[in-house]
Amino acid sequence: ADSLRTLAAGVGLRIGTAVNMDELNVDTTYTGIVAGQFNTVTAENVMKWDAIEPSQGTHNYGPADQLVAFAKAHGQLVRGHTLLWHNQIPSWLTTGVTNGTIDNAALRDILHRHITDEVSHFRGKIWQWDVANEFFTDSNPSTINPNDFWISHLGAGVIADAFRWAHAADPHALLFYNDYNIAGEDGSNAKSDAVYAWVRQLRSQGVPIDGIGNQGHLDTQYGFPTLLTQDLQRYANLGLKVAITEADVRTFIETTDANQTPTDNLATFAQPYEYSQMLKACLAVRACISFTVWGAGDAGSWVPGTFMGEGYADIYDVNLKPKAAYTALQQDLTLA
Ligand code: G3I
């Protein structure tokens, strides 16, 4: 059967993966999968601020440049991830804020410079930037999180400024807001409603935002978010592109088992089903321009380190053998 990227190209979709730069060009099986199966890539970690500016004023673009070069060599478009987030901020910055050597005015200048420098560095080489990431929470979903590091220091308007600064540095990159659980949740859809209302307001104010990234970190124990297509279409109706940016579907495993052996048949049935439904939602919405899985094999997944007793979330197993979820995506693309 054809590769995912060949099949996706046939239906005008970009299919991607988050790339771990500790493995790319090191593990040949992994490298072959990244090159052979995907036609867009996202930096899993190496474009985040702590990786790019480990000490103030000293930049380390090396690993990210390597990824961009790899992508160019393999006909892949790059998603830049991510410029403004509460996580993986350099420690010199958080320390400076805590000890008072960086006041709010200085913090704003430092952020402005960071976005300008990084977006300028990659100008012309990034297809989609995740400009801002995860400003809404599940616990207080109806509003931008007032306790977020950036919001508490600089106010909610800083997100719109981040989009303006990024646009000034690279007017051709598509600028995205990226978050999880912002499309499809039935029952209370409060987080999706809040993001929708907020982004509609940004658009009406002329803020240069082009797209919404729905991460797509699912868990078999909660079932599939059945309103996904409808909510993606709702964003699209505002004139936005949409993308699935970090798809994975975690399930219960034997804790501390390096093979991530599933403990129930949700892995067999629910996992490929949920991957398939996510892809079908993207295929059903014309404005959905890319579908990215968050990593290739289970061995590299962030899930077991974050959710005790859960894993087996990716489309390849710990030995980089394709799972039923891979075959499901392949079949969906074949029939699309
Ligand atoms: O770089 C250090 C290394 O020097 C150190 O020795 C090692 C020891 O723990 O840690 C390394 O940093 C790790 C980093 O990944 C790079 O490998 C961090 O501990 C680890 O926490 C970090 O995890 C990443 C996580 O974001 C942190 O926020 C995951 O790989 C990455 O998959 C995950 O991705 C996020 C998206 O960016 C946003 N959406 C959610 C998604 C999953 O959490």
Automatic annotation (TrEMBL):
Principal EC category: hydrolase
The GH10 domain, residue ranges: 1-332
Gene3D superfamilies cross-referenced by the UniProt entry: Glycosidases
Domain of life: Bacteria
Keywords, comma-separated and alphabetical: Carbohydrate metabolism, Glycosidase, Hydrolase, Polysaccharide degradation, Signal, Xylan degradation
EC number(s) stated in the UniProt entry for this protein: 3.2.1.8
Catalyzed chemical reaction(s): Endohydrolysis of (1->4)-beta-D-xylosidic linkages in xylans
Entry's family note: Belongs to the glycosyl hydrolase 10 (cellulase F) family.
Protein name as catalogued: Beta-xylanase
